Amino acid sequence: MYRKAVSGVLLSFLFPLLSLACERADLVALRDSIERRISGVDARIGVAVITSGGDTLEVNGAEAFPMLSVYKFPQALAVADWCEARGILPSDTISVEPSDLPENTWSPMRDKYGSAGMEITLAELLGYSVGQSDNNACDRLFRLIGGPAVADSLMRAIGHPETVIASTEDEMHRDLALCDINCTTPLGMARLFDEFYRGGVCGRNPVSREVAGIMLDCRTGLSRLPAGLAGSEASIAHKTGTGDIDSRGRIIAVNDAGFVSLPSGDSYAIAVFVSGSACGMEQTEAVIADISRIVFKALGEAPCRNPCPASRRRCGAL
To answer: What's the pLDDT score for residue 26?
Structure first.
């Protein structure tokens, strides 16, 4: 009887370890699949995935990559923090001056309203910046909170020193070298999305909730991470970044990062950063879509291996 009891104790101790080993083996196989896909691609590629169980997979995940417009997500977190401290709500209006609307940059907001200036709600301004990657809206938000240094300081304060925010969109447009300074790691960005959605930061205040919904409805980069989920019932909240062509004829960066919510109630954060691509935009986006598809096939089509509490959807956006 003593031997049976000991056997039962050993089995109860070993079973979680065996399950963990199997799960890690799955992640090793997933990483191998990603590495095979990116092998031979003439670009520098970084990938990071964080599962709902807290397991992490990465390929070049600790390397720094230019964020481009992905940085409009951490900037939006700084806007939410700044507004919370001052009692500013998404419905409050922000003045946009003619000087905030330069012509030689991507700006659906300017295209809709013209260059004469306007009053616009904070929610709409965030919608243009985060949802449509509007560069003028982004820079108006920087002016609102006091500049890139404010957003950079917040990243350090919340434990994300790898995410460096040093210049505005206008400054990057004038000097492409600044694109490399506004940088992060795939692992850092995946962690930021994980903390925002699964960690509940998205529900902390009205502006954060607004940002969470905007990224769920994001319509940019549909040929990137969202393409890997096509035909499924999974949803993704994400933020893209796209760079110009550098002096070598390569794309500075093509990025996408986000949080995937699965029909099972499970979820994962994912970031894919591609820099210095010589493959052209369509092919580079296809690499991101394929990585997304590989990850979804491994994590989204498998049974939920971890508890899936309703708190993962507590921000109301997913």
So the answer is: 84
261 is catalytic: no
Please give, one letter per residue, the 3-state secondary structure of 156-183: HHCCCCCCECCCCHHHHHHCHHHHHCCE
Using CA atoms, how far residue 129 sits from 136, 164, 192, 233, 315, in Å, is 8, 18, 18, 27, 21
How far CA 284 is from CA of 36, 254, 275, 277, 289, in Å, comes to 15, 7, 10, 7, 9
Catalytic residue among 12, 19, 69, 223: 69
Asked whether the whole model's pTM tops 0.90, one would answer no
Q: What confidence tens digit (pLDDT) does each residue in 212-239 have?
A: 999 999 989 999 999 999 999 999 999 9
Q: How far is the C-alpha of 238 from the C-alpha of 272, rounded, in Å?
A: 11
Residue with tokens 């417009």: 69
Cβ partners under 8 Å of residue 1, min gap 6? none
